[in-house]
Design a protein that fits this description.
InterPro entries (chain A): Thiolase (IPR002155), Thiolase-like (IPR016039), Thiolase_C_2 (IPR055140)
GO molecular function, one term (chain A): acetyl-CoA C-acetyltransferase activity
Keywords (chain A): Acyltransferase, Transferase
Largest sheet of chain A: 9 strands, mixed
Number of helices of chain B: 1
Radius of gyration of chain A: 19 Å
Low-confidence stretches of chain B: none
Structural class of chain A: alpha/beta
Number of helices of chain A: 13
Structural class of chain B: mainly beta
CATH architecture of the largest domain in chain A: 3-Layer(aba) Sandwich
Number of domains of chain B: 1
EC number (chain A): 2.3.1.9
Largest sheet of chain B: 5 strands, antiparallel
Protein name (chain A): Acetyl-CoA acetyltransferase
Strand order of the largest sheet of chain B: 6-5-4-7-8
Strand content of chain A: 15-25%
Helix content of chain A: 25-40%
Strand content of chain B: 35-45%
Largest interface: A-B, 38 and 41 residues
Helix content of chain B: under 10%
CATH architecture of chain B: Beta Barrel
CATH superfamily of the largest domain in chain A: Thiolase/Chalcone synthase
Shape of chain A: globular
Oligomer: heterodimer
CATH class of chain B: Mainly Beta
Strand order of the largest sheet of chain A: 3-2-4-7-1-8-11-10-9
CATH class of the largest domain in chain A: Alpha Beta
């Protein structure tokens, strides 16, 4: 059984806010749900599947109640929590549920306010006593990956900086982006060192906000008014130190989720016209591009250099909304906005300055957790019909 | 300085209590599976590689090399260096590097274990040899 072509993304909504001290987190979930439902042109009472992750206050049942979803109709819920890529995993799970007839209109929401206040810590795993004292944060966990990648493959800070430069070229056209200024490689290298070898401009922004999706059957999607965008391949995977044997921080679980998605779609990375790649840090993008097969392992530095990720300039336009590096990173979870910008590209709704011509195949890929410790990855391949 | 940081006491549990008891006498323990022969860290009762329950405690040399590290410069308690050490016995362990010039750390550098006190059992850290 495959989910190829069995589910369509009929509604998308990205919250325009980047700072929301005057709103509740549940309210932001409701605002993005309303936005996606209106974008799809359906009623909230039509929703029969609901998907949320750890950012949803109280989890699925308080959210279903708060959102006023139609509980006589709602028949499928999924609160899979895999950090920032949760929503890419939800997309695949929604497609599975739709293909199995378990729901027909799925709502996926993400929202939160890490810029307004600190996020609650993750629940401790079995490793807590052996790791928590050492102060792993996103910055230094990804710094450890970058340090080893540089050691093994000669990757440079200049090459990493090109990823931020490309994101900034796109963000200048996004009126909602937190950082709209175009930056240079020198700007990135001259920004303060945060956690070696990552500079401040190698890091994504912290923003409030959120986003939502409506995923539905081919038949319902065709009855609505939006351009048709369907899921044709999906993969998910996890990776961790696994007892400390053969530790290798230069690759992510994308080496497994990517091929699963490409195989299901029946395409290769060469067929992709636009890529949404989770950019918590510049090194995240570089490693994932290698892991997904856009270039060979160790050659990511050369691949991203000289504007190769800039729309209209390079071979692989990426994160044309400015991504997490420049636009937003709602709830410190970048998976949702990766899907949304990919759908915009496939619909032809991206900003004209960054719209990829004839964009018919796109990838949305993300990770969750800490790349340098333990993490999940998920890959979605989307097609315009 | 990293020494100024206050480290949380391990909570401990029945599966790992022997590790922390040994730490109190300055011994750094790993687990080894007698079925497949592989050592692992952090310690589990079931071998993560072959799923045998025949795992035994083994005192490690406490020596290894730096696999990778990152010096965190923006921290309310001052800069600190997190990293992984690949032990002589094989497994790689997450740690902080202490009692040294953090600017001079290098991948491949030889390090050894040192224990730092908490309000409970001491915690293992590593320092250049």
């Amino acid at each position: 059984m495959t989910i190829k072509g069995k589910a369509y993304i009929a509604g998308i909504y990205e919250h325009p806010t980047r700072h929301a001290p005057d709103k509740s987190t549940a309210q932001l979930h409701a605002e993005v749900a309303k936005g996606a439902i209106e974008d799809a042109g359906i009623s909230k009472d039509d929703v029969d599947g609901y998907f949320c992750a750890g950012d949803a206050p109280g989890g699925a049942w308080p959210m279903v109640d708060y959102l006023g979803l139609n509980t006589k109709r709602l028949r499928h819920v999924d609160s899979t929590e895999t950090g920032g890529c949760s929503y890419i995993i939800h997309l695949g799970h929604a497609a599975e549920a739709i293909a199995a007839g378990k729901c027909s209109i799925a709502l996926i929401t993400l929202a939160g306010k890490p810029r307004t206040g600190a996020m609650p810590p993750r629940a401790a795993g079995a490793e807590a006593d052996f790791e928590s004292a050492y102060g792993a944060t996103t910055h230094n966990a990804y710094g450890m990956c970058a340090m080893r990648h540089m050691h093994d493959y000669g990757t440079t800070s200049e090459q990493l900086a090109w990823i931020k430069v490309a994101a900034s070229h796109h963000a200048q056209y996004n009126p909602h982006a937190m950082l709209k200024d175009v930056v240079t490689v020198e700007d990135v290298l001259n920004s303060p060192m945060i956690s070696d070898p990552l500079h401040r401009m190698d890091c994504c922004v912290v923003s409030d906000g959120g986003g939502a999706l409506i995923v539905t059957t081919p038949e319902i999607a065709r009855s609505l008014k939006k351009p048709l965008v369907r899921l044709v391949g999906h993969g998910e995977a996890m990776k961790g130190p696994r007892g400390g044997k053969d530790l290798d921080l230069t690759y992510s679980a994308g080496v497994w989720s990517g091929p699963r998605a490409f195989e299901e779609a029946g395409i290769t990375p060469k067929d992709i016209k636009y890529a949404s790649i989770y950019d918590s840090f510049t090194i995240t993008v570089l490693m994932q591009l290698e892991d997904l097969g856009f270039c060979r392992k160790g050659e990511g530095g050369k691949f991203v250099a000289d504007g190769n990720l800039i729309s209209g300039v390079g071979k692989l336009p990426f994160n044309t909304d400015g991504g997490g590096l420049c636009s937003n990173h709602p709830v410190n979870r970048g998976g949702m906005t990766k899907i949304i910008e990919a759908v915009r590209q496939l619909r032809g709704e991206a900003h004209p300055k960054v719209q990829v011509p004839n964009c018919d195949l796109a990838i949305a890929h993300g990770t969750g957790g800490l790349l340098g410790v333990r993490h999940a990855a998920s890959t979605a391949i989307l097609e315009r019909v | 300085m990293s020494e100024a940081r206050k480290y949380p006491a391990p909570v401990t549990n029945p599966e790992t209590a022997a590790f922390w008891d040994a730490a109190k006498s300055g011994r750094f323990m790993i687990k080894r599976c007698t079925a497949c022969g592989e050592a692992h860290y952090f310690p589990r009762s079931i071998c993560p590689f072959c799923y045998s329950d025949k795992t035994v405690w083994e005192e490690a040399s406490g020596e290894g090399t730096i696999y990778t590290y990152s010096l965190m410069r923006k921290s309310p308690t001052g800069p600190y260096a997190i990293g992984y050490v690949t032990l002589k016995e094989g497994p790689s362990v997450q740690t902080n590097f202490v009692d040294c010039d953090l600017e001079k750390l290098k991948i491949g550098q030889k390090v050894k274990v040192v224990f730092k006190p908490t309000d409970g059992a001491p915690l293992p850290f590593f320092t250049p040899v």
